[in-house]
Every structure is written in structure tokens, then in C-alpha cells.
Amino acid sequence: MLTSAQLAHRLRDAAAAAREAGQLARSYLADPSRLAVAFKGPQDVLTAADGAVERMIVARLSSAFPGDAFLGEEGTGIAGDRCWVIDPIDGTANFARGLPDWCVSIALVVGGRVDLGVIFDPGHDLLYTARRGEGARCNDRPIGVSATTDIRRARVDAGYSGRVAIDDFTGLLRRLLTAGATVTQCGSAALGLARVADGRLDGYVERHLFAWDVLAGLLLVEEAGGRVNPFLGGDGFTRGNKAIAATTALYPAIAAALDPP
Length: 261
Description:
Helices cover 37% and strands 27% of the residues.
């Protein structure tokens, strides 16, 4: 367990690291010849910035907290009881094309529970932070999920990856649209979740994501007064899981669209 002061210290350092990471990533965009865009799989983009940003975050936080473990999307470390989970650039496909919907995501898991979450959206200079039990903030102002209660007035981000069967995804879309929701897709799960926490979207849903994609964002939504699925249940930490986040009123309808009763 960490004390309140230790968690506060880690949140401050993670927020500073996320801002620095965003600046580093943007420096690659300023010189596209440095990006070295490659593909890990169909539509699964990797750039030189991803690895550089992850290494910078790990170096900064490991220097400050040498006893902590690290797990990053680009291959850093292994999980531990007190573990930073890092997505250096969530929304790399957008990032590589110069589109604004990408972010830096950092979460701290302590004893199997997400205690801290930080997401930095460099394109809009928005720093989202959350500490369990203390609410969620954006640029240091308190935020909360929307007041939407009717799915027919809801705007829901429905994410997709090639790990999921196309029929599964189109079925989700059909059920959301039939229920009356407007469906959108920003291409970054972490950013979509941050926007749910900030009340600009009403829900986020995706069949399969990894821990680094969502842990910070799910904590943000929960601390902003929303409802999320128990992502870390079973082997979610190592193998990933579905992700559902929404206002408490809309959660049942969105969950049913993903997994019909």
C-alpha cells in the first residue's frame, strides 16, 4: 500500500511526465522524416515516437520511484504489485497522419487496483488526472460525466480493432443505432474515455482492449461519477478485456448492445 502523500507525489510526477511526453511526441510531428512509420499488423501503426516517448516516461518515473514496476505497450518491463501501465501514444494511426485525436496515457495499479490515472491530450492541451476516491479533473478543474439519461440523446464512441470479428462489431453498431444512439469513433480509446469523463461523450464501448489502452481512462470515468465494467477481472491485466464506460443511467443499454441478453 502507498500512503496518501506517496500517491500525491506519484500523481504530480505522472502528470508532469505526460506533458513532457506530449511535447516529445509533437517534436516528431514537426519533422516527419523522424517518424519512421511502420505496421505491427493490419491498421496497427507504429512510429519511432512511440518507443522514444515510452522510454522517456519510464526513465523519468523509474528515477523518481525506483521500487515501482512498469508495463508499456511498446514492450517495457513486466507487471508488478505496484505497476505503472503506459500507452505512450494512444491513437498512433491518427498521430502518424497528423490528426489531433491521440494522447498519452499513464495509470498506476497498486495491489490489483487502479489508483491513479493521467491522460494528456496534446492537440487540445488538456491534462486529465484522477486519484481513486478524490474525483477527476481536467487542467485542474473538477469534471463529471454528462447528465444524459436517454440513449436516444446519447453520443457513444464505439471502438474497433482487427482482433474482433467484423460481424461482432457491426452487430454492436446496429444495436446502438437501433436504440437511438449517435455513434462516433475518435480512434483512441484513452481519449474517448477521457471525453466520457468530461461529459463531452456519453459512453464508450469496445469488445477488446489492452490494459494500457484503458486503465487511466476507466478510472477517470469512475471518478467523474460514471460506471465502468470490471476490466481487471479474470486475466484482463495480461490479456485484455472488453471496455464499457458511460453515465450510470446509460450503462445498461450500452452493455446490452455489446452483449445482448
